[in-house]
Amino acid sequence: MDTVIGVQYEGGxxxxxxxxNARSILTYQSNLDKITKLSPSSALAVSGPNSDLVNFxxxxxxxxxxxxxxxxxxxxxxxxxxxxxxxxxATALRKGPYQVNCLLGxxxxxxxxxxxxxxxxxxxxxxxxxxxxxxGYASNFCLSIMDRDWTEGLDQDQAVAIVDKCIRExxxxxxxxxxxxxxxxxxxxxxxxxxxxxxxxDN
Amino acid sequence: xxxxxxxxxxxxxxxFFLFFFVFQLLPILVLCQQQQQDPLxxxxxxxxxxxGSNCIAMAVDSRFGSGPQMIHTxxxxxxxxxxxxxxxxxxxxxxxxxxxxxFSVQMENLKLRRFLGFGFASSSSSSSSSSSxxxxxxxxxxxxxxxxxxxxxxxxxxxYQRRTAPYYVEPIVVGLEEIKATCRGQGNDHISNDSNHYNxxxxxxxxxxxxQETMIRYKPFLCAQDVIGAQSKSHAFVCSGVAKKSLYGxxxxxxxxxxxxxxxxxxxxxxxxxxxxxxxxxxxxxxxYLMEGGKGIQEIQLSCRND
Lengths: 203, 307
Description:
The structure holds two protein chains of two kinds. Chain A has four helices and twelve strands, in the order ββββββααββββααββ. By secondary structure, chain A is of the alpha+beta class. In chain A, the strands form three sheets. Chain A has a five-stranded antiparallel sheet, covered by helices on one side. The longest helix of chain A is centred in the first third of the chain and has 21 residues, at about 50-70. Chain B starts with 10 loop residues before the first helix and ends in a 5-residue tail after the last strand. Classes of the chains: A alpha+beta, B alpha+beta.
């Protein structure tokens, strides 16, 4: 039901998610922020039931902060964070699984890799490094758009244009109404919100 | 577990029981938002390994999908222990990654001679002459390579450890066992395995010298395992993954004994691709790893249908 879209470009990652918090026939809220900042240069966009969404993203982000605090401010690379996230999902899989599908996007400084990386993770703890990805029903509509438009060496505007195209497509063809989307960018300047349909801070 | 006091079954309480237990099951069924599928068929993927004379080819596909949808194309996980043993893993991708981590940790422990948990240290005591742990360690460090049989047993053990909640992975362990054939008229074969190091009555120790010629042949070892580590060995070919049934058919019709390495690449590649064409959950690229005795491992990309 949730839509999560991610596109990696030269210099960072764009993450987009719909803002509706709904179950069955009822929409509880339409200004939810499903993209959590994990570290100064990475963010986790999560789809799934709200309970697991919030629980999982808070758990991961706080543990990554804890690691930083316990290790003299050492920042984990995106690859390490993604594998940590996968490990948590794998351990929980046979105890009490998180029903979350995530996209983790991060930027590593030039001394590391110097580009953005995007990791696709599903609720069965399968991890895959991708150039672009979708979670949820959106994948049926948006993956082919990204297959056609994505190339190596995009810049931020082109990547945002691809995400916009995907969102337009969902508006036209997806049966569920998702009026608001939040779009965030992860690059060398950190994690920041580019645009949103409804202000998540409005409560 | 909720225990009910025993009651005489009347129709209304029976219905109550029925509804209650069905209600218990429903949340578990609804838990997975995807279709209720066999976990081994969720992410797709297939592997075929075939043997030739002194060589082995393992073909793996590159599709990582979520049911019918393709997520990413990246070759299946293949663990390379050293130039004569390979382990290919296919199944539920999360478990593939967990199992490959576990296996790698065990290999690291063995390399650094940290004998934890499996009692490797105690197994050397069977040898009459060298029964101390340090002597075994020096034997290990001399060879520093695990035989495919041992790797297969290790994998089997790791899988069986989770008998009650298994890893949904069907690994294939393949390798080449060294056979040193010394031609002295008749020729005397003896397998130089770690496990046989206590055979002290070897003819090799009698130095005859002049006419001795040591030829190293490589005997292929192929082993496929199921989710709880039951080993199934073959001298010809083994298959694993979603296209297993098609692969067995293709391989059976195309394989013949004593294939040279070039022929093996052709035969294995063709058998693999024909089976993949008919299977929607595998494909999107294929990689063939050719392991030749004494030469190492070569990676060959095969082109196939992208669907």
